[in-house]
């Protein structure tokens, strides 16, 4: 995980955010292009890291893995560029290029889904089939346990991390470290503490885009 995070970071960045979709919202009997095209204004995964909500689709680099979606054959009259791709991996890569233009993206596809047999908790909706795909309508009887699900997971070097890192910097900055004698008795010097604090602020600034940079300048002036 550490090596992958290093691969996705450059220009002084060191942190990545985690995203996932469990299960990946794929309707039964429909292709991956159909599932992705259904998300016109959003992405089909949710942020797991405590960074707040991201505004818009933007990242610097990302690694995305999709499991449990079988390879699809190209159709004769593609309804979109995604439908013209020859493999599931090409579909995912094409989607990432379109959704995150200019970002460094890697896509990996594994045919085997994630098993959800006991003791995996059965918190899934009744709208899921045993294989974790979406039904067209709820079953008319008690549905069987979900045995596996398609999953999409991603690690992103993203501007959303600026919020998390800058908030951490502001919280630590408010502390009066001199009041914590045990902290410095462990061997930490006041100068080292201040240096680490400034490094945290610099790291947060590495994830700024135009809007965040303007906001940080205003906060710096108020400090």
TrEMBL record:
GO biological process, one term: mitochondrion organization
InterPro entries named in the record: DML1/Misato
Cellular component per GO, a single term: mitochondrion
UniProt-recorded name of the protein: MSTO1 protein
Organism: Rhynochetos jubatus
């Amino acid at each position: 995980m550490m090596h992958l995070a290093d691969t996705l970071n450059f220009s002084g960045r060191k942190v990545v955010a985690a995203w996932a979709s469990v299960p990946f919202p794929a309707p039964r009997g429909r292709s991956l292009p159909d599932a992705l095209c259904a998300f016109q204004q959003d992405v089909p995964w949710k942020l797991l890291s405590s960074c707040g909500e991201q505004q818009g689709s933007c990242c610097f680099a990302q690694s995305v893995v999709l499991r449990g979606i079988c390879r699809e054959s190209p159709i004769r009259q593609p309804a979109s560029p995604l439908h013209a791709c020859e493999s599931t991996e090409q579909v995912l890569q094409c989607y990432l290029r379109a959704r995150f233009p200019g970002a460094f993206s890697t896509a990996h596809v594994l045919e085997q889904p994630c098993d959800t047999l006991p003791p995996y908790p059965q918190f899934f909706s009744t709208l899921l089939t045993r294989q974790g795909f979406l039904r067209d309508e709820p079953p008319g009887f008690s549905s069987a346990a979900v045995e596996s699900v398609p999953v999409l997971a991603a690690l992103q070097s993203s501007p959303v991390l600026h919020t998390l890192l800058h908030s951490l910097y502001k919280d630590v900055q408010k502390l009066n470290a001199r009041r914590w004698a045990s902290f410095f008795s462990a061997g930490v010097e006041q100068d080292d503490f201040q240096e680490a604090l400034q490094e945290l602020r610099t790291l947060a600034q590495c994830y700024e885009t135009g809007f965040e940079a303007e906001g940080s300048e205003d906060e710096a002036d108020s400090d």
